[in-house]
Write a structure and sequence with these properties.
about 150 residues; alpha/beta; D-tyrosyl-trna(Tyr) Deacylase, Chain: A; six-stranded mixed sheet; two-stranded antiparallel ribbon; 3 helices
Length: about 150
């Protein structure tokens, strides 16, 4: 599992001209599922993200988690996180899980974030052509790999 986490002041995802998910302050989570990923791996990632201290305290230090600030999470599936461009000019995506595996694991990831205490969890639409808008706060961006 691979996640690009962006701390945002707002984020939304549009499909077919309609907003299907939106949050105010929180994390935009671009989420890639690999072929070896499991529900357990997804749950570990959700726990990690819910507890990461990336929001400032009164002194401006990263000392508050998404749960602490009552922030939201917008989960957007993105198989291109597994793109391999080591050969040629066209990326290979063989490192990404097949849709029949990835789709339920993305749903499970959103559910695991809720179970980890994230107050608001929104999602995009798996496999859809999505337009994602965000205001990166900080900017704060992390790349997380499930190990």
């Amino acid at each position: 599992m691979r996640v690009v986490l962006q701390r945002v002041s707002q984020a939304s995802v549009v499909v077919g001209g309609e907003v299907v998910g939106a949050i105010d302050a929180g994390y935009l989570l671009l989420t890639g599922i690999g072929p070896d990923d499991t529900e357990v791996a997804v749950e570990r990632m959700a726990q990690k993200i819910a507890g990461l201290r990336l929001f400032p305290d009164a002194r401006g230090r990263f000392d508050r988690s998404l749960r602490d600030v009552g922030g939201g999470a917008l989960v957007v599936s993105q198989f291109t996180l597994f793109g391999d461009v080591s050969k040629g000019r066209r990326p290979s995506f063989v490192g990404a899980a097949r849709p029949e595996q990835a789709s339920p694991l993305c749903d499970h990831f959103a559910a695991a974030l809720r179970a980890a205490g994230v107050s608001r969890v929104e999602t995009g639409v798996f496999g859809a052509d999505m337009q994602v808008s965000l205001t990166n706060d900080g900017p704060v961006t992390l790349w997380l790999d499930e190990a």
